[in-house]
């Protein structure tokens, strides 16, 4: 037969971002470790060798950190002016860096002093990297040129001066040792082949280019500049595939996740956005405290490191499942498995008469009280602190149920000072919540009706009633203002649509309307 | 000529225990008997299956008692004035005793062999209990006239009389009086109670039960008290004790055969078992689902049986385990939803228990299941506003169900929840998918699904002046419904909506205007209007007639618009209250109201004459109707019943407790013709243009031309009034109309017209009488002309007018033609 139906707690659609696989993945990082550097962090590069140390270029130093250390493992401090673009070679043995002094320095990771210095640029070198064959160094400089250097002889191999403004970024091809790409403040991205004298491809980004990145397949190229991130199809001769405008300040750095499925972009607007490389939609968003200049992902996405203009390096490590086990494992001793299966795995024989225990429906406390028509107790049980503070919707649902039963007044009446003050504080907290307002206003009216006589006897209650009054008055003002705004918008929309409709009517007047009326004239006669 | 009359019959006579009128008086160990309509149903108590239907009575069966000398036989009595004796194990009628009066109740006493007690009406609307001696003559039909009056002024309700302690006495309660008649002493004692006392008790008797072997009578009262009367063989020294558990009237009381327990039941739907002689000790069988109406116990005391208000019989063992539930069509308080047919199960869907929808299989006369819509604990309390299911709709595939539930405590506080239920293949039931609270700001007046199989769309119209379209939207965590479009039309209130069969057009009735929308682009395609009179029902034609849109208005008009030419195909003055299309054919059923009864027409939209019509198909107003497909097409129907060959028509009247079922049987009756009126609607345009058009036609239409010729009264005339009352959107812009109209009036005099004036006057007087007769066929607008008092005009003015009459308005039609 029909059993007691538990009170339905309405669920309200949660506003804001939806929880997707991506949010779960990108949220699975620990709280960030903050490391203070001496100046703005312009470049972070991971060593390809395990344990994947990373080089952080900031001010006049390059620090190398271990994956979990907060102190630098090694520092290169021999720069007289700001260092730029400290980058590891693909074997992890050498490190190259440009600097404000127009010099390029090559370091041995285990040594201290520069192995080589490459002179030739006339202005600051912002971009240095190794070519795929490991024997050459690429560089881009503020003297509008980019050059190719031979590592052992420190001789300039070739020089390209096609850019008409500072060359601030670039990337070598990992597949072809001769090809490299540079981005410049003259809004262009150029592809060079060291076997050719001139650039082989030029793409116009439209904004000063801050960063370029090649996809692992090298069929696609990403460039960032201004507020835009653009993806170019190299195989189609540099056609723009998609243009993303998700930041509201200049995008400064780009980075690819280890699988190549997600693209990250950091910007001066203090956000890092994660894009899916299949749909080019933003799937996640990180907030930082300051404008971001550089970002890097460790292999396997084990950590996210962002460098900011205020010199802070934020390091987020991924949570590992074994970490959690360590925490919870020792805390409590659970009963053994056999305790739970005891007697449950017995198979009844053919002639056995099975006696089942009646399944007991578990009701919440308020439902138990409602079932017994104990209305005041039901209301008391949902006004307990952990219910009314954590899940106000449960409290409101029970109030609604009481109202439906016509016993809300009985439940509200007969409370002492403490009970009344709890009720009033719940009202003050929730009465302006649009989900609860209709019913809670009724409750407030009832409370005032019931306890009108005792006003003035308790200072606490009087204070709360005044607060409630103030709150409701304020809310009425807000609502009025909103209605006014709505009215203004309505007039705006009305003037817009009136023009459109008039145009539509004119075009239709000739056929539609006349058709209807003409039709009425031709009404068929039925004999 | 051979004519066909449909015989509307209640469900009960078709064998559905729709109305368990009286009592399940007879329960034997294996069988349960219940009276329903004019038949007695025999059910197996273990399998819930119906074993036999004892048919033979021609009116409501009112009483049913096991034969005390033979437990395989049962007596039944009916309002048709007969008592019948049946063998219910084989379902055979043994004997019929003809009494000749309406019998309201029947009792059998073990100690009065050869006699049954029946309640008959007396002359002055009172009732008496009489002993009927059953003659021993052989033969299937016997006249029984040997009647002996036992008690006068008894209640006709079977529960209010009881035989006690081996038939020594009979106790009967009526109003505030309990009468006890002792057979041996042949003496009647009467005990009265006051109607009220200071504590607000309501002492009116509701039911009586007598202890089988003790001198004790239990009576139930309106305020829920049970009194146990003792020592009632004296006039003065009688005593009674009072027990009180029920909060409202005790509906049924019954002692177990051994007399150890007293069973009582009421609206609380709890069976209370009082231990006899143990004070107020009692047991409960709670949550039986609905108010208990009757209680019955098998002669061996092993089975208890309760019949409930929602047309249900519950059989339980004396150990209080429920062994069987026999459920008929639930009669809700009011059926507010449309009658629907579930496309999957072909079950009838409508309101059932409070807050539920019932799925009732018409084929098997069985309730399939109840769907809990409201999902709240039902609290029965007088004056409490319940949440009611007011609208329901199922899409064409049966995979979505939409319901609207409503609760209105006061005019300001209205709770409306629109719920959408998805059909789950694995559980074979509907599951809640989306719940939208306050889908509209006002009540939802109509709701329908589109017939489109790919993209199901739901349209609701609300009293807030909007109609909303709801679409299934995909979400990562399951698909749910959301609002796709909100439409309105000149701030009018939409009343009806309807999708065409393929889902490509949506018609929404706003007051007197029908708007047709394209659901793909939400563009307003056309509007139709047939003023005056608001749209009452709308419906698209099906199959070959899908180019027609039918509408009925409150001003007795049934209109059929052609959607291809955007014109009125035909119209007819019938006060149609309900249109119901047959989903399997082009046919359409229309119910029209006529002086206390309802007429039925069946027609095809393509031709304006009925295929079938019947006057007074039932009394009262028909509220809902539905075509239910037959399992197999009926062969060999004659022409007038052809429309029933593949479906049945079910309908529900206003105050009928049970839905009627139409079955066809040849019967002589007068056929009612649908009156087709051949006039066109008289709109201002007609008034302006009609004359010009008419002149091009044959002159046979003289009546119409005269009406057209009479309409140039300049002010206060119906024409002007008509112009003002026509919806503005049907007219072109006022400046356009006015300017041209006024210009056309400025035609200079011409001499020849003056000469013919007198002739015309005579002609007009002649035609006056002719017009009188023809006006009735002209439709409502024309009728207005007759009632309007003609304004008094001077001779000069008349002459002026007559000249205007001659004026040629063809310019306007030529203008429109261009």
From TrEMBL, chain A:
Gene3D superfamilies (alphabetical): YVTN repeat-like/Quinoprotein amine dehydrogenase (2.130.10.10)
Keyword tags: Nucleus, Repeat, rRNA processing, WD repeat
Highest taxon of source: Eukaryota
InterPro entries membership: U3_snoRNA-assocProt_15_C (IPR018983), WD40/YVTN_repeat-like_dom_sf (IPR015943), WD40_repeat_CS (IPR019775), WD40_repeat_dom_sf (IPR036322), WD40_rpt (IPR001680)
CDD domains linked to this entry: WD40 (cd00200)
One Pfam assignment: UTP15_C
GO cellular component: nucleolus
Residue ranges annotated for the U3 small nucleolar RNA-associated protein 15 C-terminal domain, each copy included: 345-492
Subcellular location: Nucleus, Nucleolus
WD repeat feature ranges: 118-159, 244-285
Main function: Ribosome biogenesis factor. Involved in nucleolar processing of pre-18S ribosomal RNA. Required for optimal pre-ribosomal RNA transcription by RNA polymerase I. Part of the small subunit (SSU) processome, first precursor of the small eukaryotic ribosomal subunit. During the assembly of the SSU processome in the nucleolus, many ribosome biogenesis factors, an RNA chaperone and ribosomal proteins associate with the nascent pre-rRNA and work in concert to generate RNA folding, modifications, rearrangements and cleavage as well as targeted degradation of pre-ribosomal RNA by the RNA exosome.
Name used for this protein in its record: U3 small nucleolar RNA-associated protein 15 homolog
Highest classification ranks of the organism: Eukaryota, Metazoa, Chordata, Craniata, Vertebrata
GN (gene name): UTP15
Automatic annotation (TrEMBL), chain B:
Gene Ontology MF: a single term: RNA binding
Keyword Membrane belongs to the record: no
GO BP term (any one): positive regulation of rRNA processing
Biased composition (Polar residues): 784-795
Residue stretches making up the WD repeat-containing protein 75 second beta-propeller domain: 339-656
Subcellular location: Nucleus, Nucleolus
UniProt biased composition (Acidic residues): 754-771
GO CC annotations, alphabetized: small-subunit processome
Protein name: WD repeat domain 75
Species assigned in the record: Scleropages formosus
């Amino acid at each position: 037969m029909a059993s007691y139906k538990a009170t339905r707690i309405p669920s309200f659609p949660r506003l804001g971002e939806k929880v997707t696989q991506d949010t779960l993945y990108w949220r699975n990082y620990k709280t960030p470790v903050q490391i203070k550097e001496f100046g703005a962090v312009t470049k972070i590069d991971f060593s390809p060798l395990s344990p994947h140390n990373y080089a952080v270029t900031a001010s006049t130093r390059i620090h190398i950190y271990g994956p979990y250390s907060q102190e630098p493992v090694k520092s290169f401090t021999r720069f007289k002016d700001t260092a730029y673009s400290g980058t590891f070679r693909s074997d992890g043995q050498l490190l190259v860096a440009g600097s404000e002094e127009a010099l390029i320095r090559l370091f041995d990771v285990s040594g201290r002093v520069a192995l080589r210095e490459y002179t030739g640029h006339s202005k600051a070198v912002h971009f240095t990297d190794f070519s795929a064959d490991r024997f050459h160094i690429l560089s881009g400089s503020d003297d509008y040129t980019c050059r190719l250097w031979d590592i052992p002889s420190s001789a300039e191999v070739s020089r390209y001066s096609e850019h008409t403004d500072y060359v601030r970024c670039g990337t070598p091809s990992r597949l072809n040792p001769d090809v490299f790409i540079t981005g410049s403040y003259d809004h262009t991205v150029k592809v060079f082949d060291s076997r050719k004298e001139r650039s082989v491809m030029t793409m116009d980004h439209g904004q000063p280019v801050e960063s370029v990145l090649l996809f692992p397949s090298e069929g696609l190229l990403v460039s960032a500049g201004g507020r835009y991130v653009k993806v170019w199809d190299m195989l189609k001769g540099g056609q723009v595939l998609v243009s993303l405008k998700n930041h509201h300040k200049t995008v400064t750095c780009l980075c690819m996740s280890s699988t190549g499925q997600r693209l990250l972009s950091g910007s001066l607007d203090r956000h890092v956005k994660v894009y899916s490389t299949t749909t080019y939609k933003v799937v996640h968003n990180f907030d930082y405290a300051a404008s971001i200049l550089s970002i890097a992902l460790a292999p396997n996405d084990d950590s996210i490191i962002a460098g900011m203009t205020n010199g802070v390096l934020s390091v987020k490590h991924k949570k590992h499942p074994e970490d959690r086990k360590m925490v919870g494992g020792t805390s409590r001793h659970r009963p053994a498995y056999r305790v739970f299966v005891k007697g449950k795995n017995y198979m009844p024989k053919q002639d056995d008469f099975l006696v089942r225990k009646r399944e007991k429906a578990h009701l919440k406390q308020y439902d138990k009280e409602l079932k017994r028509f104990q209305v005041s107790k039901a209301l008391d049980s949902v006004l307990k602190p952990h219910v009314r503070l954590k899940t106000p919707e449960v409290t409101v649902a029970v109030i609604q149920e009481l109202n439906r039963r016509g016993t809300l007044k009985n439940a509200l009446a007969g409370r002492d000072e403490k009970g009344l003050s709890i009720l009033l504080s719940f009202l003050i907290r929730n009465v302006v919540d649009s989900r609860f307002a209709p019913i809670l206003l009724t409750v407030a009216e009832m409370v005032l009706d019931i306890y009108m006589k005792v006003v003035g006897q308790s200072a606490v209650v009087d204070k709360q009633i005044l607060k409630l009054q103030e709150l409701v008055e304020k809310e009425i003002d807000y609502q009025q203002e909103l209605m006014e705004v709505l009215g203004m918008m309505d007039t705006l929309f009305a003037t817009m649509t009136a023009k459109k409709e008039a145009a539509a009517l004119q075009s239709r007047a000739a056929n539609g309307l006349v058709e209807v009326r003409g039709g009425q004239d031709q009404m068929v006669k039925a004999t | 000529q051979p004519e066909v009359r449909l015989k509307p019959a209640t469900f009960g006579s078709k064998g559905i225990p729709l109305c368990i009128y009286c009592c399940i008086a007879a329960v034997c160990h294996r069988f349960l008997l219940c009276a329903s309509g004019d038949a007695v149903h025999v059910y197996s108590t273990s399998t819930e299956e119906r074993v036999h239907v004892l048919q033979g009575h021609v009116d409501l069966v009112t009483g049913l008692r096991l034969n005390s000398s033979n437990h395989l036989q049962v007596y039944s009595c009916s309002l048709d004035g007969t008592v019948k004796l049946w063998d219910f194990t084989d379902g055979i009628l043994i004997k019929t005793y003809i009494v000749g009066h309406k019998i309201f109740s029947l009792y059998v006493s073990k100690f009065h062999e050869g006699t049954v007690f029946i309640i008959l009406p007396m002359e002055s609307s009172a009732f008496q209990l009489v002993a009927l001696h059953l003659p021993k003559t052989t033969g299937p039909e016997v006249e029984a006239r040997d009647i002996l009056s036992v008690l006068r002024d008894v209640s006709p309700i079977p529960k209010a009389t009881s035989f006690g302690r081996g038939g020594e006495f009979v106790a009967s309660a009526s109003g505030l009086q309990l009468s006890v008649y002792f057979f041996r002493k042949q003496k009647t004692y009467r005990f009265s109670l006051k109607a009220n006392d200071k504590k607000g008790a309501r002492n009116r008797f509701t039911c009586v039960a007598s202890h089988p072997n003790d001198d004790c009578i239990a009576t139930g009262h309106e305020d829920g008290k049970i009194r146990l009367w003792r020592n009632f063989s004296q006039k003065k020294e009688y005593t009674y004790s009072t027990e009180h558990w029920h909060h409202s009237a005790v509906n049924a009381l019954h002692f177990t055969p051994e007399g150890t327990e007293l069973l009582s039941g009421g609206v609380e739907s709890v069976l209370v078992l009082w231990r006899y002689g143990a004070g107020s000790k009692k047991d409960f069988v709670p949550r039986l689902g609905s108010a208990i109406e009757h209680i019955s116990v098998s002669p061996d005391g092993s089975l208890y049986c309760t019949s409930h208000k929602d047309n249900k019989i519950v059989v339980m063992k004396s150990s209080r385990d429920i062994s069987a539930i026999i459920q008929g069509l639930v009669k809700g308080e009011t059926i507010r939803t449309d009658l629907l047919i579930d496309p999957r199960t072909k079950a009838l869907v409508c309101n059932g228990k409070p807050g539920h929808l019932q799925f009732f299989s018409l084929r098997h006369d069985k309730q399939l299941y109840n769907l809990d819509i409201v999902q709240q604990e039902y609290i029965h309390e007088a004056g409490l506003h319940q949440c009611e299911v007011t609208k329901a709709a199922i899409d064409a595939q049966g995979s979505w169900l939409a319901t609207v539930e409503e609760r209105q405590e006061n005019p300001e506080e209205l709770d409306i929840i629109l719920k959408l239920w998805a059909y789950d293949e694995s559980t074979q039931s509907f599951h809640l998918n989306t719940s939208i609270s306050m889908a509209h700001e006002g009540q939802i007046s109509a709701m329908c699904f589109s017939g489109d199989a790919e993209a199901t769309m739901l349209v609701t119209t609300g009293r807030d002046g909007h109609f909303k379209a709801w679409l299934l939207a995909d979400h990562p965590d399951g698909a749910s419904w959301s609002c796709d479009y909100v439409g309105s039309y000149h701030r009018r209130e939409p009343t009806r909506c309807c999708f065409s069969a393929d889902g490509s057009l949506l018609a929404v009735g706003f007051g007197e205007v029908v708007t047709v929308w394209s659901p793909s682009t939400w563009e307003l395609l056309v509007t139709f209007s047939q003023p005056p009179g608001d749209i009452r029902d709308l419906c698209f034609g099906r199959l070959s007639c899908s180019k027609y849109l039918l509408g009925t208005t409150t001003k007795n008009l049934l209109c059929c618009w052609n959607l291809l030419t955007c014109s009125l195909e035909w119209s007819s003055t019938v006060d149609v209250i309900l249109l119901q299309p047959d989903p399997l054919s082009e046919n359409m059923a229309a119910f029209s109201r006529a002086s206390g009864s309802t007429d039925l027409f069946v027609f095809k939209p393509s031709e304006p004459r009925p295929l079938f019509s019947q006057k007074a198909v039932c009394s009262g107003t028909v509220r809902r109707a539905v075509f239910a497909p037959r399992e197999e097409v009926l062969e060999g129907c004659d022409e007038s019943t052809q429309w029933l060959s593949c479906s049945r028509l079910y309908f529900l009247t206003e105050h009928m407790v049970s839905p009627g079922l139409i079955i066809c049987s040849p019967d002589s009756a007068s056929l009612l013709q649908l009156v087709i009126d051949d006039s066109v609607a008289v709109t201002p345009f007609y008034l302006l243009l009609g004359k010009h058009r008419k002149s091009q036609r044959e002159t046979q239409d003289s009546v119409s031309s005269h009406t057209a010729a009479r309409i140039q009264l300049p002010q206060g005339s119906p024409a002007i009034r008509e112009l003002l009352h026509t919806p503005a959107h049907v007219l072109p812009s006022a400046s356009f109309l006015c300017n041209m109209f006024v210009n056309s009036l400025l035609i200079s005099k011409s001499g020849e017209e003056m000469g013919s004036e007198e002739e015309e006057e005579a002609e007009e007087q002649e035609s006056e009488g002719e017009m009188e007769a023809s006006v009735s066929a002209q439709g409502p607008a024309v009728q207005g002309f007759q009632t309007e008092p003609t304004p008094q005009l001077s001779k000069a003015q008349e002459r002026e007018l007559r000249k205007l009459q001659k004026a040629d308005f063809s310019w306007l039609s030529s203008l429109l033609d261009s």
